[in-house]
Amino acid sequence: MTQLQAQTVAIPGQALGPSSKYSAGPGTHIHESTLYSSLLGTVSIAQPEKAAGPAKRMHRLVTVSTSNSSSASSLPTVSILPTGGSDEKREVLPEVGDVVLCRVTRITPREATMAILIVGNAVLSAQWQGVVRAQDVRATEKDRVKVYESFRPGDIVRAQVISLGDQANYYLTTANNELGVIMATSEAGNAMLPVSWKEYKDPETGLSEARKVAKPM
Asked: What is the distance between the alpha carbons of residues 213 and 176, in angstroms, rounded to a whole number?
């Protein structure tokens, strides 16, 4: 996992780091010893206050005990600040060529419907809907694409706007090595890791699931 940095945008469900390294603040939660973002917003990291000598000695004794409350206070606290600043409230409309981050909401044999969350570096105050059609999933072997083997509801996808589409949807594409699924959860509910350009693997169960995987940037 890459080093967590403040002032970066976090997506709901994004792994932020191990709970042994960070303490959970507002907008985050811990699941199976990993800290996750609960909101769409900006990462904030608050460093713990350094205690004086005697307090520090007592703190060390508590750390060894079974209590986690004092040990957690010695860790940096990670919080997610929801969007709400004056600059972030202005409406951003996706345009052709924009790279967007989306969450898959529904799939059919012909297309995957997604909620657009981020356009470039701007977090949207209102969600827009996008669609990746089967012919826009990848650049090669388009006639052999199966949407359910490329995306699943809940996946976070990096895509590009190729058309303003109709009144209801933007048309998106993942037909590029850098585009595709960047975060996926297994059927067992575990965060998965990419193992190839077309496969994610659940590290807990060892089972693999098909996806259109984005090349790490």
From this structure: 10
